[in-house]
Amino acid sequence: MKLKIEREVILAPLAGYTHSAFRRLCRRLGADRVYSELMNATGIIFRGEEKELAYFTDEERPIHLQLYGRNPEEIAQAAVKMVEKYRPEAIDINFGCSVKKVLKAKAAGYLLQFPEEMGRIVKETVEALKPYGVPVTAKIRLGFYEDTLEEIAENLLKAGVSAIALHPRLAKEGFSGHARWERIRDLKKIAGDVPVIGSGDVRSWREIDVKFEETGCNGVMIGRAALSNPWIFKEYKEKRDIRTGLKERVEFILEELSLMWEFFERERACKVIKAQISQIFKGIRGKAKLNDMVMRSKSCEELLSNLREVSNFGN
Ligand SMILES: Cc1cc2nc3c(=O)[nH]c(=O)nc-3n(C[C@H](O)[C@H](O)[C@H](O)COP(=O)(O)O)c2cc1C
To answer: Residues in domain DUS-like FMN-binding (predicted)?
Structure first.
């Protein structure tokens, strides 16, 4: 199935951060497309575990719901369930994550060692979603211990993948070293008319056009940089630096929190948002003290009152 992606700036999936509320705010700031964080296929089929992870609103579309798993049949079955229930624009399969839990399950990034198995998973899912007209995309790294991008790409393309997002590091590298964007250019050459999305280390809006020009890719993903500066999408769209102070950042958090309460239980949302708070205070003078004040909050009420107090410290 064809998926049209042309010069899009996309919010990368970031487990623990890119829930519906953060995605909506990034879409409002100019992100062209979003991905959910990874969800376990077995959990979805047998335990209905996706719950708030799969929650999204129309405002977030186009959205890719991301799955990971070990077994092609299970992933395909979970994909059908998600499509019937939520109707996303695409199902994405994660082949990049290499945290202990998923490696133990021999899923996600672990599968980079077995390109043919990756192909089987995509093929099975493509077949299962054909009746629904929903495309299947994949998010990959260069390989696990060694760079086997060509072999991986060949298997995914043969299986009918509709777009490939590449974070050009090895799984064993984690986040060390740097993303090798020249491999995005190589993938683009192999992929023909299947869109290629590059992901990794883009810190400022000024780098985005450079990535498009240098690699010919169809999309640039912004991950960690969006956590500390979600305005990066607006900066790119308006081609100008946007300076935000403490007040704007606290307002962003308060808005995010109020959107989170739609799908997270109130106190849980207040716990989850703390990770985002410590990111968004980056670069603000007195960050450590502000962070400390906010992190100490023991309840939602205390968090809200501390945030309001912090925001009065001025810009
Ligand atoms: C905290 C965190 C969580 C992540 N969660 C996911 C995930 O759920 N699915 C996925 O495909 N990639 C995930 N990634 C990888 C990112 O999508 C992205 O490819 C990577 O961070 C490189 O881009 P960046 O330098 O712009 O952050 C995660 C990365 C981080 C730092």
So the answer is: 10-308
Catalytic choice (26, 97, 217, 270): 97
Please write the tens of the pLDDT for every residue from 81-101.
Answer: 999 999 999 999 999 999 999
Residues 107-166 pLDDT 10s: 999 999 999 999 999 999 999 999 999 999 999 999 999 999 999 999 999 999 999 999
pTM over 0.85: yes
Q: Is 149 in the same domain as 215?
A: yes
Q: Annotated binding residue at 66?
A: yes
Token pair listed for 151: 């072999």
**305 and 230 belong to one structural domain:** no
Block residue for tokens 């624009």: 89
The rounded Å distance from CA 11 to ligand 1 centre is 10
Kindly state whether residues 163 and 202 are assigned to the same domain. Answer: yes
Do 223 and 268 belong to one domain? no
Q: Establish whether the linkage from the previous residue to 62 is cis, with ω within 30° of 0.
A: yes
Domain limits for position 258: 246-311
Spell out which residues line ligand 1, taking CB within 6 angstroms. 12-16, 37-38, 66, 94, 96-97, 139, 167, 199-202, 222-225
Nearest to 164 by CA among 193, 125, 137: 137
Closest atom of ligand 1 relative to the 36 alpha carbon: 8
Out of 99, 101, 178, 224, give the residue to mutate to test ligand 1, the one with the largest number of ligand atoms within 8 Å of its CB: 224
97 is a catalytic site residue: yes
Residues 6+ apart with CB under 8 A from 131: none
- Characterize the bridge pairing of strands 63-68 and 136-143: unpaired
pLDDT digits over 151-207, tens only?
999 999 999 999 999 999 999 999 999 999 999 999 999 999 999 999 999 999 999
